[in-house]
Amino acid sequence: MFNEYRWSKIKRIGMFKYIIKYGILFWGMPLGALIGLISEVSSNGIESMSTLLFSSIGGALYGILIGIIYGACSWFYNQRKYSNMY
């Protein structure tokens, strides 16, 4: 995912900000919104824009939880991977 130089720069922002940025904002919320839209369209078709909006918002909220889990796992994985190199 990262090389050593990039990880050393990212590590300085701290675990909390890393989880917010890379876990929730870059991964969890977009994926959750996309899954919410796809599931709504595949199950009901496009009934109204408000239904699509609520499905994508609900998916994005669910994506926050998934993003926290992904971000924390990614942080600890990268931390262990690059701490063995120094």
Ranges where pLDDT stays below 50 over 5 or more residues in a row are none
Share in β-strands: under 5%
Total of DSSP H or I helical runs spanning 4+ residues: 3
Kindly state the percentage of residues in helix.
Answer: over 70%
How do the helices and strands line up, and which of them pair or pack?
Elements: H1 4-11, H2 15-44, H3 49-83
Protein traits:
0% strand; 86 residues; 85% helix; single chain
Structural commentary:
The protein has one domain. Helix content is 85%, strand content 0%. It is built from three helices and no strands.
Could you provide a short overview of the structure?
By secondary structure, the chain is mainly alpha-helical. It contains three helices and no strands. Helix content is 85%, strand content 0%.
